[in-house]
Amino acid sequence: MNSILAEIRSDLKANADEKTKQSLKRFFKEQTKFYGVKTPVVGKIAKKFWPQVKSLSKKELFGLCEELFRSNYTEEAFVVNNWLPDYIDNLVPADLATFKRWLECYIDNWAKCDGFCSHTVGDLIQKYPQTVGEVKSWAKSESRWLKRASAVSLIVPAKKGLFLKDAFEICDTLLSDGDDMVQKGYGWLLKEESNMHQKEVFNYIMKNRKVMPRTALRYAIELMPKELKTEAMKKE
After folding, report:
1. 95-236 belongs to which CATH class?
2. Kindly report the CA angle at 223 between 218 and 154, in degrees rounded to 5?
3. Domain ranges of the chain
4. What CA–CA distance (Å, rounded) separates 112 from 80?
5. Cα dihedral sign for 19, 21, 22, 26?
6. DSSP 120
7. Across 25-29, 57-61, 104-108, 138-142, least confident range
8. What's the DSSP call for residue 18?
9. 111, 120, 203, 196: which is closest to 148 by C-alpha?
10. Structure confidence by residue, pLDDT tens digits, 221-233
11. Which of 13, 43, 83, 133 is deepest in the core (most CB within 10 A)?
12. Residue 39 three-state SS
């Protein structure tokens, strides 16, 4: 496992450049660590090592993922985010406890959060719908990233029109949160749910727009027709 870790880091360093590093940093308010590797290249590196990694025991694979998260380098987190969706057949509901711990301990920017939650956690929820209650509980956390994760984890299912009631319950909890990362997260969730549930989402927005921050509202109505957007944004 240590040799794989060393080889991954060697490849990341070999593909890093300062221009990319500075470009990536402009997307984040938080202090972030980057090698400076373009995202498609990170994906190729992850794919290169996946045949070796998937042959590890689950304990070893999770241990390797944790070491990559622990480094705090965003590209190393992206490697994990590339791997785990391909491991979905081996994931079980109990793994959600590990994922929550990783979110609490290692996730420190929106890209790490969204990349991990929208697919790995989202895929787990679709496979095991009974896990959605645990993910909804994250919305009550003190952690901004767990709160965002509660919403973003339902993004992929929402594209299929799934879990609308649960999405509304998450948004109810996060509705007046003052953190823009949280507002954008649940606004994005409402936007995706509006693809197949436009009327329900519009009604939800209209019912709550007096307390919904404008940041969340703008995200939520992004896919709606102009006349609905105008109605939602109208000041009373």
Report:
1. mainly alpha
2. 85
3. 1-90, 95-236
4. 10
5. positive
6. I
7. 25-29
8. H
9. 111
10. 999 999 999 999 9
11. 83
12. helix
